[in-house]
Structure formats: structure tokens, C-alpha cells
Amino acid sequence: MDTIRADVAAWESVGFPAASDERKSARELLVQQLGRYANSMALSSGLRALTDYVSASHFLLLRQDTASDSSLDLVVASDWPFDLVKNLVGSIGGSQARTSELDKCLAVLQPSFVHMPETIAIPAGISREYCIVTFNVGRTRMSLLLLFGEHFILSQSKLRDIGLLAGYFASLSCRAAERQDRELELTEREIECLFWIAEGKTSDEIAVILGISRNTINNYITSVMRKTATRTRSEAIAWAVRNNLV
Predict the structure, then answer these.
(1) From CA 227, how far away is CA 215, in angstroms rounded?
(2) What number of other Cβ atoms are within 10 A of residue 161's Cβ?
């Protein structure tokens, strides 16, 4: 939480001033909310909060640095109708490929509205114009696409906020993910236990081999299964084989 508080303080220092709870604006409350969602790895919840902030109906978060045969690999998170995503993302990827690097840089944090191709079917009540805002998280370029209802009334001030807010949230989320990855790394002892389990050894036998107690071995194995989201020793072995650890 200290990290989140520091980030919020830094954010406030560049244009989002602090205020008492009674006088906090919707923008300031959203900054705090995004910090909590990022820290708890609630990506969809944070994107939904951003979507609601600008009175949009759906969000689609894409990363622009993924080289893949499938355009859907660009999708990070979305609550758009699946068929709409499938039909639109391919054309977005092609458009990005034809855009110069200079134009991409100039478009960062500049929300723009794009008209949906007439060949793409859209749900009833949804506008054909969607908003796209691009931002960078480290070296990764990302785009947030927002759908709106027909005849929507847009707040220009909130639209100007959305790029910075989206980048802020994505940056916090990436740091939280990196922190979680570090927490999930197996220790050398845990990998040793995995190796001997794969060799068919029991906890008692591994305890003798490593010169530590049976209970300690079981604790290591329990930790391995928690970190790898496996339920049995066999599943843990299969995970270790897939990840070239044994």
C-alpha cells in the first residue's frame, strides 16, 4: 500500500491535487480507486471504472507490440461483444502497420474518434463511432478503445483525462504483476523437491537425501503446488516438465 500511496501522491503532484474526502472530485476518487484495483490485480474492474468515468458502455484494451498470426493476441482485456472484437481488431492491426512511427508517437494520449466500418455489425443502441486513446507503459504501446451508446453526451474534460488515467492504471498493474511474478518464483529447495518427486521419491526419502525433516519437505511441496496452482504431486511434476525444470 505504501507504493500505491506514493504513486497517488506523485500523480497528484502533476495536476491532480489532494482534497478532503468531502471535496474530492470524481477524478480524484477514480485515481484512488484505480490504485486499489491495480494493487489487487483487478484489471477488468479498473478498466470498467475508467469506462464508467467517461460514460462509455464497453472497453477493449490492446497492446500494439505483439507479433502473432492471430490478431486476437493483441487483446489484453475486453467486455466488447466477441464477434465485434474479432471483426474489428484485425483491421486495427493492419491500420497500425501502415502508420508511421512518428504519427504513432504524435497520437499518444490524444483521444480520437473512429467510425466503425459499415461491413461490421454492431449491437443495437451502440454508436458506430468508438474512441481510441493510445499510451505507453514502459516500451509497450497500448490502446484503450471505448464504445458509447447512441446519442451519447461526452464530457471533454473527462475525455482529456482518460489517456493519463489509463496509462497510470496500466503502469501500476504492470508493476503489481511483476511483483506477483517475483513472489511466485520457486526457490532452489523447492526445485530440488520437484526433481526428487519426479524421480519417484517419497517425502521420507527426499528428507534423507536433503538432510532435512519430512515436515519441511512437505512444506516445500505445498508451497510449490500453491505457486504453480496445482493440486497434486503429479500435476506439479507435469507443470515442472512443461517449464523445463526437471
Answers:
(1) 18
(2) 22
Q: Quick one: cell of 105?
A: 508517437
DSSP SS3 for 45: helix
What is the set of domains in the chain, with CATH numbers?
A: 2-183 (3.30.450), 185-242 (1.10.10.10)
CA–CA distance, 208 with 154 (Å, rounded to integer): 69
What CA–CA distance (Å, rounded) separates 111 from 155?
12
Q: Provide the grid cell at 3.
A: 507504493
The one-letter amino acid code at 25 reads S
φ/ψ of 132, rounded to 5, equals -130, 130
Q: Where are the beta strands (DSSP E) in the chain?
A: 58-63, 75-78, 112-115, 129-137, 140-147
Contacts of 47 (CB under 8 A, 6+ apart): 59, 61, 77, 79, 144, 169
Is the pTM of the predicted complex or chain greater than 0.90?
no
121-163: pLDDT as tens digits? 888 999 999 999 998 887 788 899 999 998 888 888 888 898 8
Q: Which residues pair with 62 in a beta bridge?
A: 75, 143
For residues 174-192, one letter each, b for 16 or more C-beta atoms within 10 angstroms of the residue's C-beta and e for the rest, the string is ebbeeeeeeeeebeebbeb
* pLDDT > 90: percent of the chain: 26
Q: For residues 203 and 222, what is the distance between their CA atoms, to the nearest angstrom?
A: 12
